[in-house]
Structures are given as structure tokens and as C-alpha cells.
Amino acid sequence: MNVIAIRQPTGEMNLPPEDQGELGTFSLKWIFAFLVRRWILIAATGAVVFALAFTAFMLQPPQYQATAMLMVNAGQDQVLPDQMTVGRDAAPPAQIVDSQLEVLRSSMLAGRLVDTLGLINDPEWNTNLDDPDAPAANDQSPAATAYRAEMRQDVIDNVNGAIDVRRRGLTFAAEVGVTSQSPERAAEMANRLVELFQQYQLESRIESAARANTWLSARLETLRTDVQAKEAAVENYRAQTGLVSTQGQLLIEQQITDAQSSLMQARADLSERQARYSQLQDLVNQGGSADTIATVLNSVVITQLRAQEATIARRQADFESRYGEAHPALANVRAEREDVRNQINAEIRRIQIGMRNDVDIATARVAQAQATLDTLRTQMSGGGPEMVRLRELEREAAAARTVYESFLQRGHELEEQGTMRTPPAELVSAAAVPTEKASPRLSISFILSFALGLGLGLVVAFLAEALDEGFASSDDVERKTGSPALASIPRLRRSELRQSTTSAQHPAAYMLERQMSAFTEAFRVLRTTILFAAGHPKTQVVAVTSALPNEGKTTTSLCLARVSALSGQRVLLIDCDLRRRSLKEVLDIEPPVGLLQVLSGEVTWRQAVYLDEATGMCVLPVSGSGFTPKEIFGAEDMSRLIADLRGSFDLIVLDCAPVLAVAETRVAAAKADCVVLVSRWQKTPMRAVRAALQQLNDAGASIRGVTLNGVDRRVPGYYSYPTYDFSKSS
């Protein structure tokens, strides 16, 4: 539907950015409309591309693919173990497998395959085999050598392109496929490629082991010399400083160790003797029994005396039971027992004195051992700098020997293990001769051709859409120019005009004959939009122009004036195009006087006006000698003429020249109440319309909007409401 928009009366014209266009507003609605209006181009391009691509695919020679599967070893061949390397992390097994697969894809292995199977003499791989300019086989010139090298490289590239190496998921299994025109050749190449890969891996390991042995031998010799030199430096320094060593230790260190052991033993003996002596003293002071003392002292003499005392005690008890207290035998027994007790006490005192002497002796031994140890330590501390230097030399010698022993052990391991530790790659299944061709396949060729055709069709359609600078619909006009779209005038085809009478072969005449047609209704919509636009003052003078010539502005002016006259208005159509004077040609009149004579005062406007009998419309044309270099529309005569005409006519239509072609159009348009710019559907460039609108706005003209002319209703996707055709004129 046509939308009547309210134009800003003053200020700069609100034009959208120039880069804003149809391709900048992607949406589902736009995509659907794009596909609808460009489907013919997409289908035609897609059909041609599909036919060409499908034919090209099906004309290709048949290709067969043979596939072999092998298991790649993810182990690493290290010259040094991980504990002998610093700052080096082992690569993950997955990266090792990927590296081995890159070897399978390498040009080096493809070159070996070419040389082994003689593929350079196979016309499938060598397209230059029958080259008449090829040098002779016995030609050894630099040019011939370079030619053969280039030809060999071409064959290698062709073979490498036919090799497909793929890893199965995250496993160590890999598939090696080779595509060839011969199924037997494909299987042979796949199996031979795996053999060459295994051979290359073995050669690589042998060379790596040889290099490792050579390097280890040289390194061991260097380390051996270094160890010998550092150990000799230690011994020389000991000889120079007198720091003699026995059994791997310095003599003074050994003496200190012995002194420390003696001191510890003496202290332990002293502690034991002091404990026994203290225990005896405590028992004696506390009045302990002889049995307890004997047990503590562990004395044989006291034990014997204690047994003797027990015997005498039994005798005493016997005598006391038989005799009286005054009996001599009882007195003798008691005296004998007292004597034994005195002997026990004397023995205890003797032992106590001996234990005290033992404590004193042990104390003296501890003091002597401590003095000896202090003396040795003093002697050792007196040689401090020499000892520090000696320790440093010993540490350097020990570190050098440790490194030497590690490398020596690794060398022995390599000698024992040899170079054949694990197989580099194991063939799981050999490639069998394929029975079905890999390409071309009908289904795949069809899908690829269809996808290619559809893709190129869409690309071409997008390019056509991007390069289309015209307006596709009323919404397009408003979006790209910022001005209201007043109406969409349909285009009349020749077949429709031929259906009318001979006198109605022009759109303006067609409108009179078919007043109920959609073509006539479009001008009624335009008239209503202009005259009854909300927010605008009463419109009486309307200037109709275009950005470029041949936009249909004269036919639009004439039809607008006629449809207004048919509605009962008093209408005057003024031809303001002084150069082309299209109006008199359309109406088929040859006026002797016209607009210029009226403005110059030679005649009045009533003497120059013609009456359109069919509609009652009046026309003020331009006479035959219409052009003049004088300023016509900017003079006061034009303003007075329009002011005079306002009192006699309800609507005055000014048929002006194109804005960008004639400068005086801006002056004439500024004298009208509003300006209608006619733009041809899909023809007028957007930039031309924007420039014309800007020039009219700069001239002070009141732009009512843009009329889209010549819309083809049979082209889908360009509008969302019924529109009809409008044939080209003026």
C-alpha cells in the first residue's frame, strides 16, 4: 500500500547513509523476497553450472582406491634416558603418531615409490612422457638434467596427490590409501608405500643408533679424561697439604672418629659405675638388708658369708630351744654369728671403696678422652681452607665420576640391546585389489554438481542484487532515500496498448478509455496522496520532475492532470521543460504562442491556454521557439503568473525538466507548493535520486515524495501489494 509520510518542513534533508541498501538488511523476509525475485537467475545459472559440472565429473576416467592398514609404534628412540636429560619433556604418543603419518605423506617417500615402481615411465602419472621436446636418454647436459628433475618432481606431485593417509580416531592405527586408474596398480602402490615406510624407519633407527654410539664414545672419552684429571687433582692437593687419607678418609678424620668412639665408651662406663655406686650408697644409707646389698653387689664373698650366717642362725635357734641364756654353747654361737656379720659389713665397705675408685678411674678416662678429642679437633680446624678446597675438589671428582658411570652404563645398554628393539610399524592388513571404482560416482557427482550449481547461482544472484542500484519497491524507496513513496505506477505493455483503439495508443489516452483500470487507479492514489496529505497545507501548485531524462515525468504530469480534471477540479498543466517541449508532442499540438510569450507580456495566459476536450483540463505549452538563455523561472513574471493562476484553477501541474540535467528546474520547483520526483522502477540509480532530492532541498523546494514509475507486476518479489505496468514516455 502507499504510505503518506509527513516531510520535515525545514532543516537538512534526512537521507540515510549511502552504504545502506537491500543487502544491508538481511532478514527472513528479505531472503524470501530475494529468492522469489531472483529465482529465474538462480535457476538458470544453477542449471548451466550443474550440467557442465556433472558432465565434467562423469567424463573423468574411472579411479580405484586400494587401502592398507598399519599400526604405528609410538615409542621413542632416545640416546639418553629421561633421567639423564635436563629441561626436555617426552613428546606425547599422539604427536609421535601424527609425525609418523606426516612421513607417510611426505614427498620423500613418494619419490622413493616413484623410483621403486618406475612410475616415471607410466603415462598415468607422467603426462610429459610423450613430450616431443624431451631430451634424449643419453643427453647429460645441464638443461636435460634439469628437465628430468622437473619431470620427476611433477610425477612425485601427482603420486603424492593420489596418496591418502588417515588416522583411525585416537588409535595408533592408520589407513594408507592410493587412488589409480588401474586397481592392480593401486594395490601395488599402497603395499609398496607401507614397505618403503618400514624400510625408512629401520634405516632411520640404524643411523640414529650409529650416531648415538659415535657420540657416546666421544663423550665417554671426554668424561673419562675429565674424571682422571679431577681425581689426580685431589691426590696432588692432598700430597701438597699433608691431608693423608686411609681407606677413603683422612687420617685425622679417622683419629677423631676413634677418639669420639673412645669418649662415648668412657662416658657409658662412667655412667654405669656411677649408677651402681649411687645405688649402693642409697641402700647403705637407708639401712638395707644384707640380702638386698648382696643382690645389688652380686658379690660371691658376701653370698658365701650370708650362707654361713644362715647356718649359724639355725644352730643358734636350736641351742636357744635346748639351753638357757647362760649356756656357754649359746654364747659361742652368738659370738660366731656376730663375727660373720662383721665380716659381711667389712666386705661391703671394701666393695664400696672399690666402686668409688672405679668411678674416679672412669672419670679420669672420660677427661682424658675428651682432651684427646679436643686436641684432634684443634689440629683439624687449624687446616680449614685446605680442607674446604679439598672437599670442593672431591665433590667435583665425585660428580664427574657419576656422570661418567651413567654414560658408560647407557653405552653398555645400547651394545646389549642393539638397534632392533621394536618394529617401527606393523602391517595389519595389506591392500587388496579393489573391485569397485572410487570415482566418478553418480550420486556423489550429482550432489556435488547440484551444490556447485546452487552455490554459483546464489553468488550470481547476490552480485546482481548488489549491482542493482534501482528501486525495487515503495519500501525500497523510503529506505534508501528517506522520502515518502507516494505511489507505484504500473507499466503498460505494448500488448495491452494494442488492445485499445488506434487513438488510445498512448498511456494518457489509455487512461481515458479504461478509467476503471489499475493504471488509472494508481494516478488517483497519487492525486489523493498529494492533495490530501496529513500535516501539509493546501496544495494547489504541484511540480513534477525527475532526476534523469526518460523517467516518464511528462506522462505522469499529463495523467495526473487528467485524472484530477476528471474528478471535477479545474486543472492547468504547464510545460516547464523549455528544451524538449514533450507535452505538445504527446498532445499533438503546435501552438504559435506559449509560456514564454506569456511571461514576456506578448499575450495573456488565457490567449495561450489550450483546452483538453476529453477531460476539460487546460494546457499551457511551450511554442516552437521555446528555448531562451534568459532567466525565466527566477523572474518575478513567473511568480506573478502563478499567483494569477491560483485564482482561476484548483490544481496547477508544472511539468519540469530533469533536476540533474537542467539547472532552472530547481528554481521552478521552488515556486510550487510541493514537488513530486518520478523515479523509474529498477532503472534510475539510487545515487541520482538522492542527488536530485538534495538539490531540490537546497533550492528550498517542498518535496512531497517519490513516485515509482514503470513497475512490472509480473516480476515476483518486488512488492507486497498489487501494482501494474506503465510504458515509458518522455
Query: Multimeric state of these chains?
Result: single chain
**Strand line-up in the sheet with most strands:** 7-14-13-8-12-9-11-10
The CATH topology of the domain at 471-590 and 610-627 and 654-711 comes to Rossmann fold
- Classify the secondary structure makeup into a structural class: alpha/beta
How far do the termini sit from each other? 27 Å
Largest sheet, strands/sense/barrel:
8 strands, mixed
Question: What percent strand?
Answer: 5-15%
Mean pLDDT: 78
Helix amount, in percent? 55-70%
CATH class placement of the domain at 471-590 and 610-627 and 654-711: Alpha Beta
Helix count from the secondary structure assignment: 23
CATH architecture annotation name of the domain at 471-590 and 610-627 and 654-711: 3-Layer(aba) Sandwich
The coarse overall form would be elongated
Uncertain spans: 1-12, 18-24, 76-80, 82-89, 717-730
The tally of strands reads 14
CATH homology superfamily name of the domain at 471-590 and 610-627 and 654-711? P-loop containing nucleotide triphosphate hydrolases
Radius of gyration, in Å, reads: 62 Å
